[in-house]
Amino acid sequence: MSAIATVYAVFGSHDEAERIGRAMIDTRLAACVNILGPAQSLYRWQGAVEQAKEVPALFKTSAGLAERLIAEIAAMHSYDVPAVCQWPIERAAPGYLDWVLAETGAAE
């Protein structure tokens, strides 16, 4: 298992993804955020099937910061129940691993 993780989250707009992503970079909870193109989401919510355009994002962080990153994203998120989850990274290129750890302060 690697010392880094990816946190996946979806947002209601690109602006929200960017605002929260920038905050996570500024606080060094994430080294990088990839904000992806809009996605069509289908889901069941309060007994009804819904659909919406959402914006997925991938946050790169150290494994030790992932839980705190998830909590911070959820606290800033506009959804009542935001989809924010950790994807473990099994392997990573050594330079990338070192960069993520350095940028999140985990290498210090």
Please, could you describe this protein's structure?
- With 108 residues, the protein is α+β, with helices and mostly antiparallel strands.
- It has a single domain (4-103), classed as Alpha-Beta Plaits.
- Helices cover 31% and strands 36% of the residues.
- Strands 1, 2, 3, 4 and 5 form a 5-stranded antiparallel sheet that branches.
- β3 (39-45) and β4 (48-62) form a beta hairpin.
- The longest helix has 13 residues, at 14-26.
- The two termini are 20 Å apart.
- The model has no long low-confidence stretch (mean pLDDT 95).
Question: What is the domain tally?
Answer: 1
Please tell me how large the radius of gyration is. 14 Å
For the record, the CATH class is: Alpha Beta
CATH architecture: 2-Layer Sandwich
Order of helices and strands: EHEEEHEH
Poorly predicted regions are none
Mean pLDDT: 95
Pfam families: CutA1 (PF03091)
InterPro entries: Ion_tolerance_CutA, N-reg_PII-like_a/b, N-reg_PII/ATP_PRibTrfase_C
GO molecular function, one term: copper ion binding
Family: Belongs to the CutA family.
Layout: helices, strands, pairs:
Layout: E1 4-11, H1 14-26, E2 32-35, E3 39-45, E4 48-62, H2 66-76, E5 84-88, H3 94-103
Antiparallel strand pairs: 1-4, 1-5, 2-4, 3-4
GO biological process, one term: response to metal ion
InterPro entries: Ion_tolerance_CutA, N-reg_PII-like_a/b, N-reg_PII/ATP_PRibTrfase_C
Pfam families: CutA1
